[in-house]
Amino acid sequence: MYISAIARRTVVATLLGALLTSGACGGDSPTAPETISGTFTLRSLDGAPLPVVLLQGDPALTLVGDTLVMNGNSTYRTAVVLQETSGGQTTTTVEASSGTYVRSGSSLTLTDGQDGTSVAGAIQGASIVITDQGSTYVFGT
User: Domains of the chain, with CATH numbers?
Assistant: First the structure.
């Protein structure tokens, strides 16, 4: 099972970037809590429910799931579940990331604990909608 390291990193970076900006409850009011607690899952990518085929052919790559855990101490962790199929064999991998977040009203900024990259997102009701590198990610509880 081989998917080029560059293609895989690009897909994972895009998905983790989206995850980093996801997950929140509450409104836009100034009295809304500035921290978030809860588990959020990716509901759709570009309007399509999961699983979503990211790369077709042989090898193929499918996004199976995506979970974001937001903690009240302004930290998060995320796990992207991917399936690679090559030569008729399927392998499932989990790409994990963690870091810190800052919330201001309906805006979020999450910073990856490993490489320091930051991404921004917006809380929309009980969902988070992120547009990153031309794709739209919707997360919910």
Answer: 5-140 (2.40.128.300)
